[in-house]
Write a structure and sequence with these properties.
heterodimer, A: alpha+beta, Ubiquitin-like (UB roll), 4 helices, globular, B: about 140 residues, alpha+beta, Aldehyde Oxidoreductase, domain 3, four-stranded mixed sheet, four-stranded antiparallel sheet, 8 strands, about 30% helix, about 35% strand
Chain lengths: ~100, ~140
């Protein structure tokens, strides 16, 4: 449960979330959110993706878990989708969400 | 040079620069926009991560195949059929190292560098599905 009064740290917490390729088309390529301290990565993405059903369905299955091909990065490092449920975001984090790559 | 850029690539200049002391072979890989009944192609990258990964791939290929020089230039933005997408220039003492190093680099790029392509057609567009899957399942095609 959220405390009525935020600490200074909570007030300042900003996290950038970037979506690429088809995810970006559906959800916007970049958004900055101000999550509560201790917010979990999966929940954060779930909340943002909820604004667009097609975007949500592209990333999450009917149980609300990441589809298995989804790739997550936190500050440029991969995070396994199985770890995202226990990963807390921090102030200044850049989270990236994208489908399999297709360069070359 | 390891970079991601919008502009075209001067392959001749890269080849000249790749000739180092000991160079006996230079292999050039030039990936171009294929005419798959498309009008254009749109390329997008997670640039800072992609450049980082391209540098890691070049470093690994250099060590593994004793390369003397590596250039990787990947383009982004809107490209027409026939335009260069990706140029890899590899210099080595002998052809085997140059061919193998070049092949290693292109396969590593396709496997993991965060770049995406959208093929634009007269009816709209379609994202190109990667050859490699990163999760434990398969992509849902819509």
């Amino acid at each position: 449960m959220r405390r009525a009064q935020k600490t200074k740290e909570e007030e300042d917490m900003k996290v950038k979330v970037r979506f690429f390729a088809q995810f970006g088309e559906l959800l916007g390529s970049e958004t900055v959110v101000e999550p509560a301290s201790g917010s979990i990565l999966t929940n954060l993405i779930n909340e943002i993706a909820s604004k667009n059903k097609e975007g949500y369905d592209a990333i999450f299955d009917e149980k609300g878990t990441f589809r298995e091909f989804v790739i997550l990065m936190r500050n440029g490092k991969r995070i396994d989708i199985s770890d995202a449920m226990t990963t807390k975001v921090s102030d200044g984090d850049e989270i990236a969400v994208f489908p399999p790559v297709a360069g070359g | 040079m390891i970079t991601i850029q919008k502009g075209d690539i001067d392959i001749g200049e890269l080849v000249s620069d790749a000739k180092r002391r000991g160079t006996g072979a230079i292999v050039i890989f030039d990936g171009v926009v294929r005419d798959d009944d498309i009008t254009e192609m749109d390329l997008e990258a997670y640039e800072k991560v992609a450049v980082n990964e391209l540098e890691n791939i070049a470093r690994e290929a250099t060590e593994k195949f004793q390369l003397l020089h590596v250039d990787i230039i990947h383009r982004i933005g809107r490209l027409s059929v026939g335009e260069n997408i990706l140029v890899i220039v590899v210099s080595a003492g002998h052809r085997n190292e140059a061919y193998e190093g070049s092949r290693f680099i292109i396969e590593a790029i396709k496997a993991g560098v965060p770049i995406w392509k959208k093929e634009l057609t007269k009816d709209g567009g379609r994202w190109v599905h990667g050859e490699h899957k990163h999760g434990r399942g398969t992509e849902r095609h819509s």
